Protein: Ribosomal protein L1
Organism: Gossypium raimondii
Amino acid sequence: MAKNMGVAVAAALSELNVEKAVNALLKWRDSQSQAQKPQLLEQDEFLYLIVSLKKIPQKARVNPIKVPLPHPIIDDPAELCLFIDDRSKSGITKDAASKKIKSENIPINKVIKLSKLKTDYKPFEAKRKLCDSYDMFFADKRIIPLLPRLLGKQFFKKKKIPVPVDLKHNNWKEQIHNACSSAMLFLGSGTCCVVKVAKLSLEKKEIVENVIAAINGIAERVPSKWGNIRSFHLKLLDSLALPLFQAMPDLRLKILADADHHTSSKEEKQEVEEEEDDTSHQKTKKKKNKGRIHDVQYMDDREHINDSNSEADGKHEINANISTKKKKTALKKLCSIDIKVKDKKKKKSLAA
């Protein structure tokens, strides 16, 4: 089933559609660059692939999923930084790590200890400078859970979360090379992910190859594979997102909805029929009653009517008495107030 779905998607997702999307984005970028002022330092722009899933992943991953690309995004003379664990149990020191990097020609420019990261990079400004100084960050696998609190939001905003490296093994160079030539997929707590797929300094053919490789690699690594993917969109940083693939709506849900509607319509019809039966039954009763000349009133009924009338009269009298009492008390209060005022005036005149 998954294989058949993959074949159908591959047929729908052709290279022509990807080429059209890439050409449209490049044209838009050229038009924008002509309208804007020229910058002193030209920055290499990237193409981003937006992945929409049908279901939220059960567990959010802090570590990214590596999706291999045929043409690496990061240049060979890139600035790379490595965080190492300098605790007593780790058994690695900064001197030993730097010696190994030099001897094996590993492209790491800076080695930072965990203790130094805790003390020297506490302020926000220091963290921001560190984030902007390097293209990519690597870290010892054992300290990855500690880094989100130490690095701050800036690394997560710019998608520069350190890639885990197993420093217990000797293949440091191979691990770093694989990470540099891969796209990083961060599966968070939502259904939408953004992946950096290619840079605009590459040729059009290379960009198209990278996009197709990223789509196929992501579809294989995502839970439930192609069955969980809703759509793929391609965009630049400030451009609109152009659709590359859109999954068809699930037909099973539609069938279930139709079935529920059918059953509900049946129930409504039954209710209407029952109401019609009740109304017709009441009409027949009325017709039968029409044959009588008059309704018979018994003595008990007359007495009951008289009792009810007397009770109503008694209540009316009680209400009338209560209203008269209230009026009398109000008049008494007004008279007392007038008397007090007159007494005060007399006292003032006598004093004068």
In short: The chain has eleven helices and ten strands. Residues 287-301 have pLDDT under 50 and may be disordered. The chain has two domains: 1-32+43-72+182-260, 74-180.
